[in-house]
Amino acid sequence: MTLTPQDSEPFGPETMQYVRQxxxxxxxxxxxxxxxxFENSGGSxxxxxxxxxxxxxxxxxxxxxxxxxxxxxxxxxEKQGQADLLAFFGAGASGAILPTATASRAMFDLxxxxxxxxxGTNIVTTAIEHPxxxxxxxxxxxxxxxQLRVAQPNxxxxxxxxxxxxxxxxxxxxxxxxxxTSNITxxxxxxxxxVEAVRAKNPDVYIVVDAVQYAPHGIIDAQAWEIDGVNIAPxxxxxxxxxxxxxxxxxxxxxTHDKLTGANPDSWSLGSSAPAAxxxxxxxxxxxxxxxxxxxxxxxxxSIVAGIRAVQRHEQAILRTLLxxxxxxTGLRDMAGVQVHFADASSDHPRDLIVPxxxxxxxxxxxxxxxEDNGVIVYERVANNHYSARILRSLGLExxxxxxxxxxxxxxxAEHFLHVTEQIAK
Length: 426
Description:
This protein is of the alpha/beta class. The chain is built from 14 helices and 15 strands. Helix 10 packs across helix 11.
């Protein structure tokens, strides 16, 4: 379920208090300076409990594969993390989990595996993909002598329509790679609609989804979506950097890939596991379950989904405040000297809590510095940066100021941001 600003419902006072207590450096940076951190698309604010559990587990000298009691306890930590990952991905008990240092590494692995094993004449992706998926598609299409077909974005919504992707698919398409949420525009792609439209033209095509930006704000349902791969990065969802996880469908998992000779056909883990990474992910799932307020003993997937839905509703309330303002503060849509992009479609098309802005009288870089001078952290995405150039230019833009709060922020903080923006724009 993906929501729009019309589906907003802020946290109640008790939940809001609980949520804010869980995050480190929420009101002050690591040097003690007060600031408002609205740059969570670059790597979100961190849960204290994730750092605590990761540190506790990382200090164990034992290997989880050993027979000692402590080693077996570590093995249980990893098994719980694996179960939580399958629950979070909506994967049931099928498929495989690929742990990597980064989500980008995983995307290259998935796309290479499909390109090298699945016969085809073309690979389809979109112009707004993160470089880790777009560049992998481009490189492996070239190496396997397949054509790369690129769906262009809808410049009104900032996303890509399912029909634009499907029209590029034919019986020769081996792979479709699509991002779930743009980390620049905030547009949420209708993955089920993409899958339905694509498979109507080629039932056997492999479909992989980049959900790194989507995961902290939306419900992943790999089985219901009928996709073959989807990746996440815990550092974007209140966890640690240096680890990432990817779900692979049974048929993708068993394609020929790098593995130890004696390992199971669907094994994608190479080398020793990192129990601390699994412990940190379980801490994130425990947090979501608490936010969802489900009763003790509730099935894990159900409690996780309840937490994400509560997060979605609160974030949509923040988004609505940013766009439309409050009784005493003008919103971005009506603010003089400010252009908020793709806002006209936000009431009808689902979007993440990302707001791309430009200023009439300020460059994006100067606006970011002005925000920081006023105690607000945001970031510019500009066309001279290789992470952003292709995406921005496909949308007819040369740069934006990306504003990305998180569900731990309050409506009052959103209103304060609007006040600062109004002062900067004058």
